[in-house]
Queue: 3 jobs
Job 1
Amino acid sequence: MPERSIEFGKFGARGVKGHELVARQLDEFAGFVATPVEQRRGFLARLNYLTRSEHARQAARVAGLTVTDRTIKAWKAGERAPSRRNLERVEAAYLAVRRQNVARYLLARLNRQGRGTRVELHPLVQSQVPRPHQRYVEYRHLNVRRWDRIVSAWADNDIQRMDDVWVSDVTQDLGSQWGQYEYVSSIGFSA
């Protein structure tokens, strides 16, 4: 059975690790605020999301937003502007809280009461690889029935765990070809 790629791209192949594309797709499903945090509108949207209830405030504190209620009130009123560091903290807390809030909904949609979700794997791009080094890698699809560990790793923003889960739980179902799909050009699925 093949192992993980050690020198990916040595001969010119291009692709992205599968778990990164899955994380991007899950981020799209989460529906984050589109306006950047540097703009007042985007900042206030994130701040309102993080302070709309006591549960949201507690989750924001756990996620790293440790400013006082007085400071938040001044930011909302426009009396004070947040520093660059606080903007980064608000953004990180918003992403963490939003992922945690959306994870349960996404999990139910992806598992579909045990039926799972069809995932399409498009192979890596070999157009720059010299002909003798190219290998035949076909488009594949599989049905992922258990998304629990993947969504949990995504919600915790644990990239290493997501990579391990993606390789051990999902691509192993491809049989002996699983190593050919560690890097892919795209992954498609819906929720």
Job 2
Amino acid sequence: MSRRTIGTAFVAGALGLTVAALAYPAVLGVQNTVGSPSRVIADTRYGPLTEADRDFVVKVRSAGLWEYPLGELALKKGSTPQMREAGKHLIVGHAGLDEMCRRIAPELGITLPNQASPQQQQFVQTSAALAGKEFDVTAANIMRVTHGQIFPAIAKIRAGTENTLVRWLANLANDTVLDHITVLEATGVVDFGQVNFRQTTPPKLPKDQLTPPPPQPGAPVVALTPRPELNINTVSPAPSPPTVG
């Protein structure tokens, strides 16, 4: 059985049953709950802040709260060097994004969650229960779908925001997500047919499953630990071109 066939079988099983039951969000993190994404909710010295801007900062923070621990799992449980390498990139990339979120949120008056959404937490739990090749396929495909969904959302925010700090975050998020997509695809277990289908036809879930719970009053902001010893660069990846001929 080829690697492609094995990957498809695992995706059809683990993803088709387990992950489809969880469903994928259209984008990561919280959804807009009132008004319009373009509605200005604050005038800051960095430019107007819209609902979409605020939600983007929360989404980036929420993504790190589940992808960082899943990266740790990949580093520990990945059955191939490529999967463990992807884990390193997830850890380092989301630690960097998290640091930026924690720096700009107070300047913009944004409250950050300390936990990922229930759905995102379930992604981690589902992957943690698996081992070997099944872990690799399930974790890589979950993350490739969610990264593929957030990628165009980053571009939309970057193109439209008038807030300097939000543009700054979008720049880093764009590089980081592209890097993560690149290393996830390098694992060789991504099923592109399944990924593309789930990116474009996500089932609906109740808002409480897609929304990170608010932090407890007075609780300190949880920080994702930087891991400089991993010696990973997650900015502007330059993958090798495919062999032609």
Job 3
Amino acid sequence: MGPMATLDLTPDELLTTTRTVRKRLDLDTPVPMAVIRECLEIALQAPSGSNMQGWQWIVVTDPQQRRRIGDIYREQTQAYLDSRISVTKQFVDDPDRSKVQKRIGTSVEYLGENMGKVPVLLIPCIRGGREMNLAGQAAVWGSLFPAVWSYMLAARARGLGTAWTTLHLMRDAEVAEILGIPDDFLQGALIPTAYYTGETFKPAPRAPLDDVLHIDRW
């Protein structure tokens, strides 16, 4: 089978329109494993510390496995939304920003309720210790996350929607048991992957660059 068709996007368009997709994930249309494999082949081209390429990828498609992971994710989503760090409790003194945060909150809640129904759940893993110092953390996660982002960009280019989520990591041991993940491997994220509904993807509002840019010194 040849390469899957990709959208006609420039590199800048791909980078600025790869958005988090939650409510628009198509829960009913299967995603061919060939498409996921192609996205992961691209992900394997990402850099890693000392060229170790220590990543491992778990692609979960079995309905029962997805349901079990979805149950954990739903419970952790509700705990997060009830907490003081919830997205809906940020920027409450800014009416415009608060409105956006509340909209995101409903989207987070929707994904929490439906994570177990998403056709493909991807969990990227890498070997590492739980008591890493700052340098160790930077090396380990810096050797995994570029590849995860490459996967998400490749998925976007093939008409798939994704979301970077981590709420399940509060109960990572339970997920590890479900999936048989070895004790010396860490889970980095949970990436729901599906075709999406609608066509509109555009750059998101962001604070001006000069608000966060430091040249030579802080």
